[in-house]
Amino acid sequence: MNQQNLKLCSEIIDDKYVKIASNSLNAKEKLFKLLLSQRQLPEEGFDDLTIEYLLNIFAIMDTNNFVNKVGVGERESRIFSALVQKRNYYMGHGIGRSGDLIASQPKAAGSSLIAKLTKHLAKDALKLSNYQINELLIVPVATGMALSLCLLTLKSLKPQAKYVLWPRIDQKTCLKCIQTANLIPIVIETMIQDDVVTTNLDILIQKINEIGPDNIVCVLSTTSCFAPRIPDNIGEIAKICKQFQIYHVVNNAYGIQCNKIANSINQGLAQGTVNLIVSSSDKNFMVPVGGALIYGNDKKLIKQISELYPGRASAAPILDLFITFLSMGRSGYLQLQKDRVENYIYFKEKLQIITQKISEQILNTPKNSISIGISLKNLKIDQNNQEEKNQITKLGAILYSKKVMGSRVITNKKNKIVCGIEFKNYGSHCDNYFTPYITVACAIGLTKQEIDTFAQEFEKAYTQNT
Amino acid sequence: MNQQNLKLCSEIIDDKYVKIASNSLNAKEKLFKLLLSQRQLPEEGFDDLTIEYLLNIFAIMDTNNFVNKVGVGERESRIFSALVQKRNYYMGHGIGRSGDLIASQPKAAGSSLIAKLTKHLAKDALKLSNYQINELLIVPVATGMALSLCLLTLKSLKPQAKYVLWPRIDQKTCLKCIQTANLIPIVIETMIQDDVVTTNLDILIQKINEIGPDNIVCVLSTTSCFAPRIPDNIGEIAKICKQFQIYHVVNNAYGIQCNKIANSINQGLAQGTVNLIVSSSDKNFMVPVGGALIYGNDKKLIKQISELYPGRASAAPILDLFITFLSMGRSGYLQLQKDRVENYIYFKEKLQIITQKISEQILNTPKNSISIGISLKNLKIDQNNQEEKNQITKLGAILYSKKVMGSRVITNKKNKIVCGIEFKNYGSHCDNYFTPYITVACAIGLTKQEIDTFAQEFEKAYTQNT
Amino acid sequence: MNQQNLKLCSEIIDDKYVKIASNSLNAKEKLFKLLLSQRQLPEEGFDDLTIEYLLNIFAIMDTNNFVNKVGVGERESRIFSALVQKRNYYMGHGIGRSGDLIASQPKAAGSSLIAKLTKHLAKDALKLSNYQINELLIVPVATGMALSLCLLTLKSLKPQAKYVLWPRIDQKTCLKCIQTANLIPIVIETMIQDDVVTTNLDILIQKINEIGPDNIVCVLSTTSCFAPRIPDNIGEIAKICKQFQIYHVVNNAYGIQCNKIANSINQGLAQGTVNLIVSSSDKNFMVPVGGALIYGNDKKLIKQISELYPGRASAAPILDLFITFLSMGRSGYLQLQKDRVENYIYFKEKLQIITQKISEQILNTPKNSISIGISLKNLKIDQNNQEEKNQITKLGAILYSKKVMGSRVITNKKNKIVCGIEFKNYGSHCDNYFTPYITVACAIGLTKQEIDTFAQEFEKAYTQNT
Amino acid sequence: MNQQNLKLCSEIIDDKYVKIASNSLNAKEKLFKLLLSQRQLPEEGFDDLTIEYLLNIFAIMDTNNFVNKVGVGERESRIFSALVQKRNYYMGHGIGRSGDLIASQPKAAGSSLIAKLTKHLAKDALKLSNYQINELLIVPVATGMALSLCLLTLKSLKPQAKYVLWPRIDQKTCLKCIQTANLIPIVIETMIQDDVVTTNLDILIQKINEIGPDNIVCVLSTTSCFAPRIPDNIGEIAKICKQFQIYHVVNNAYGIQCNKIANSINQGLAQGTVNLIVSSSDKNFMVPVGGALIYGNDKKLIKQISELYPGRASAAPILDLFITFLSMGRSGYLQLQKDRVENYIYFKEKLQIITQKISEQILNTPKNSISIGISLKNLKIDQNNQEEKNQITKLGAILYSKKVMGSRVITNKKNKIVCGIEFKNYGSHCDNYFTPYITVACAIGLTKQEIDTFAQEFEKAYTQNT
């Protein structure tokens, strides 16, 4: 509300009240000024009213909300349903243009501003999480497809190459994104060190030599993973990639929440080759599934990905992220990360007590600070006795029935063909782990109450089961 | 978004786009300028985005939304539930102060502006409906309680008086509002002229003389009513009130939608005494139940009602009205009224055809242009035969089961005690109407499709029933 | 979604997933079963999805949402604006009927259920706050008007009486609600005991004798008040009322949050006469202004108030309350009360430290456990020196400019006519208090952070000012 | 609300009212039954309440909304912001699994049902628009990326091929989607026949022979385009593709709204090879940008695309579409299409009158029934006179300043490099069109009022400009 209109307000109610009220409106302008000039997470999160107010302003800046507009194009962002209008905050033009995923749209200044600002906010969030990167792109596709976009771009830069070297990690998407890009994965088998399943760098080097660096599009390494698998040694892989002049893409799906991974990636960036890092927006920032961050220090390369994307895209994942960053603020974001670290310690302590009681053990994987594995060595798995074998799968079923979601029971006995490749004991990240186990993750947003309930239900399920 | 911030936007996206976008923001400011300066219904209704934008601005003007506010009073409009916050558009201070229902609140400039503006918009709506009045108060209570507030105020101005003269109309609230004010109703029986049930002015005068004008708080007349009752003759009653110097309150519950009633009230205002007119906000403006308008030409008296109201009150009915007025605009409002008049004619034509088929008739009550009565004289009502008597009540039940709401079947045979007074044939507005009948109303918002379906269902129900 | 439809779902997605999902739907039904059968605050608050789901069900139960409905009445709850529809959760029929404010509506089963359930939930909340009452009515008007409704009802039961005895409390609404009911207030001056301003029971008795019990409608006592005024001694007043057979209404505006007041009222109920107690919904339950609770043990009397109310009323205050009760749950509600008690102690400790520094003192009013007074005796008030006199009012102005809302500075020098009665030193609840002071309240929902900021700003403002 | 709970309701309000209300709840179940069993657009659109009710049910079926759930996975759909929760209707798991974009999710039965149902509804919509196809996939990426997914899939089936034959159409995305898939576009120049710019089938055949069918991934033809370009002759191209055994992808971005295009595609499907057709969800169904439909008759191939997509994806575009389909219903959808056809005729008539006045002409392109071209031959374009040349671009600028969006002025003089290929007179779809012109589109949702305003503004801008 401009000065003139505020003056008109003073003719309706007491001028004194209008003055104080206009201070509050000015305070919002100051918040927006900070946001637009610093382009960082606000120190304290915005309240919902402020966020909605800002979204309204941006919506009014999009042409589809112009009063008396005449739309004679083929795409004018007419929205049929009032519910759809409302839930999209009256914006409909999506993001991007045919030339570039992050290009501003002439018809949608507001939506474009949201896209640009969200990028800056995401960069700031990464900075707060200690990532030493200077370029970032938010794509409105989830991690898997984002990785494919990276691979497609790298392929276009190295047309003759067709192989992607991939240290084994038994999550289907990690492998599939290679296939989507019409490239050929070369599995680098892991190795077991004590409890830990980890990257076998020797085999990696060996394979590079075998295939020849010129035929290799990139190494696709992974950081966030289920114990006892630990994050790939990004520092060392980066050095190897540098040495052989191979591109290096890091699948850091849910690693932003973890400082150790940031350090590992920074080391890679500093001492070797790390071209592109990809993270999920939902797994790291508590938004619905649908977006991913592609980041690194190679501005030109990231620009190329952005320019590779053909046409417009959904603004929904960016909008969710924008609202969430404003709502969290810097303090909220750091608090969530701090809570996660504390919860991780708390979770381990809780499990320590239980594992002692039931003569099992927490797998010793200190380099994985998100996921925890617990051995299930006392549960019977007689291959010839289907019933008994079920002691372990039954544990999973019981937990599921108690509304425990996301724990994974690994019996170490499944061979499986994924994307045309046969894996021994698929799910365990290696051919032969020494014990069945169950994994749990301490992800951002997990509550102490959930940890307590899990501990209780796990103990009960284990005990009743034996 | 102020100029400085728009300039910052130009550093993020193309300046050209920001310029066009800022035109759109300015266009909103111009709409608001018109609203704040003219204080009339906008020519065209605002879209939902514009309304929400304006509501957000007003919300920010309320102290409970100030950032870093310290609230050490006993009422700081802290709202527990996010759903409640959202549905109240983050406003919570209600309206009014202890001194006056329409006083501005120091803690709630935005809410106060809404209250004041809604009053102006309602006055404009009345003007568009041809009401020649110059003062209006919106109260966050429905018609009945609003009438009680009027009566309590008049009583305070004439403390020795205790009677209210009330031309009979068989709607309970009309009578009860008198009782609520601790006053004594004197029923003025109606008279039947051909099909019409109407005011008996002779008895009215006779009763005034009997009781003595000094003992009479006011006459409470009624305009909007079910056929065959027709609106009280406001012009003549106003003259009588003027002659005897008695206050006159008009219960015009749902009459704003009808031009004939406006003319009748204007005549009363011009030629006699009409002190206060009361109308429902929901029945005339398509909002949820909860508010009423008190209006007339006696500014001082209406101010007294406003000052009589003790303390704060819910802003909800005013907010609903504010949004609705902005959404309708002048053109939407006039269209709705035009549609209603057309529908009334259409409804009558439809019923004409059916009544001829079934040898019944539309009761001839041209002065009632909202409600229509249809005789049910061929349906049997033998008092000794309960089963047959049910031919009429069965008609009602069948219609109800067909989701026909709001039609009323009057069998003319019920005596009833209401507020301590016994009425003969309660429901028919008179002691003895010559035929049973069914009434339907052609209210604002009714659709042609509903009329068609009613006609169809009525004919079917009637025919199957005989 | 019924069994048949869930079965159809199983033909679309994996039956196993549908089974778990239907457990979740069943879990909601179980929550609703508890709500409908026990009619108490749920142990844990419902999440927003569950609340919206329940509101949707209730909305579908209202006739205005029936598919293919034909509405030929004058009030069919057609709602023009989609925003208004949404914010009212598609309900529009309000509450009550002409006969009774709490009567169920044939056209609005869902709305009626909400009204009835909210009453039960409010009763349960009062029980949790230790109120020993067995009947309650929620009225969609704020405290002042609710008190007027009580007085109008009592007046109707004792038509010859016209006085209300009212121990002085300098809040305008408390007095004005008497006037609204066309009754005459008799002010019972308070007395000062050390720091405390309290009820003068001797004068009360004396006035009863003077006026004669038969001429007195009731005593209107007050519990929640600003220090150094302490709550009226409800126990003793109740005994006096019993002795003289006078009705007794307690204005307990924001006292539900305070256990001491509950005890005092319970004592009154047990040992004497307490007919009606009135509390604000917004001040006690963190909803927007607009509703009040009328409660006590005289079921018949409360029914009479409900039946006195003429016609329908806004459902908005009830809906806000319903959502809030469901959202809080029993645990949330008790936690808020516990927090308030802790905050009160914390607030006092903070102020203790500051008052010592500045050589002022906290007024010793232990019986008031919501409001705290701080002397301002060292600030100059020379009546002939306007500038210096402003030391105190300036303090208020400074605090206000720092967004401190709700603190009240009392200079003890204002005479004022309220409702036709002249009060000496209006605002201080007595003719002559020994020191100017400032009051703050520790109300439900206040945060420690607000207390800290207040302490800081107060000290700064005081120090800079002297 | 189940029977047991309805019975409990009967203990709270009149059983009679509960009975009617439960009919309304049952009516919703019946609507849902039809939806779940027939999986077609409902005959009449659902109202917003019904849609929200259904969405809430589905949300409750997702595990993230389970009460007392314990989430120890890395992705548990915890949503930080209440605004984000609300706008996603409390759902967050997105769609798809690593194995398949349309696979049901164990953690999200409700979201999965929405995804599956939306697919069926989209198929039904296509059927209503006369498309004779039997398989469909909705992808949460816009048309360009959807085309890339198709090309990537086809490439994986024909790994040795690397060319895409592409009849020239000057929209960047159409070309770029080929590049994204790391394929090489071969431009098939158009030819001019009278006013029309159309496919040059001879050159197409010639190029196939030149390059060799085995080296060609597919022909990528286009239907919806700006006049004077007309849709590619799908029937003939399909025959050619069949003859040479080449895949054929049709870019039918906004052609679903047009019957002629449907017929052309059906012909292609019947008589030749049409493997995949891609359409925008926003341009055809009035939702925000973000989704596309891939459809055809080759179930296996479409399944392969679905399986190619790596990992999860945003559910937002699907949710928008689901809500919109339910809200439109069959009658609404057909009405929109009917309106568009009428508007097209109306638009042409309006322009006929104006073009005669200004001695210009409507380009005669009857096969393009969406876009209309108007010659601007009288406006001066002297290449050496920048100022005069601007007569045409000025026209565009004037229209833009009058809030006319989406009209395109083509001056026929721009050479441009797009995706590494140089095009003569880019924008005009051919090397040398005989006149400059302006195009407008008559897209779904355009209103007569917009047409009128355009006509007025165009005439004014043209006249003032000459």
From TrEMBL, chains A, B, C, D:
One of its GO terms (molecular function) is O-phosphoseryl-tRNA(Sec) selenium transferase activity. This is O-phosphoseryl-tRNA(Sec) selenium transferase. Converts O-phosphoseryl-tRNA(Sec) to selenocysteinyl-tRNA(Sec) required for selenoprotein biosynthesis. PANTHER family: O-PHOSPHOSERYL-TRNA(SEC) SELENIUM TRANSFERASE, SOLUBLE LIVER ANTIGEN/LIVER PANCREAS ANTIGEN. It comes from Paramecium primaurelia. Belongs to the SepSecS family. Its main location: cytoplasm. It catalyses: O-phospho-L-seryl-tRNA(Sec) + selenophosphate + H2O = L-selenocysteinyl-tRNA(Sec) + 2 phosphate. GO terms for biological process: conversion of seryl-tRNAsec to selenocys-tRNAsec; selenocysteine incorporation. It is found in: Cytoplasm. InterPro entries: Sec-tRNA_Se_transferase, SepSecS/SepCysS. Its EC number is 2.9.1.2. The keyword Transferase applies. Pathway: Aminoacyl-tRNA biosynthesis; selenocysteinyl-tRNA(Sec) biosynthesis; selenocysteinyl-tRNA(Sec) from L-seryl-tRNA(Sec) (archaeal/eukaryal route): step 2/2. Its cofactor is pyridoxal 5'-phosphate. It is an enzyme of class 2 (transferase). Keywords: Cytoplasm, Protein biosynthesis, Pyridoxal phosphate, RNA-binding, Selenium, Transferase, tRNA-binding.
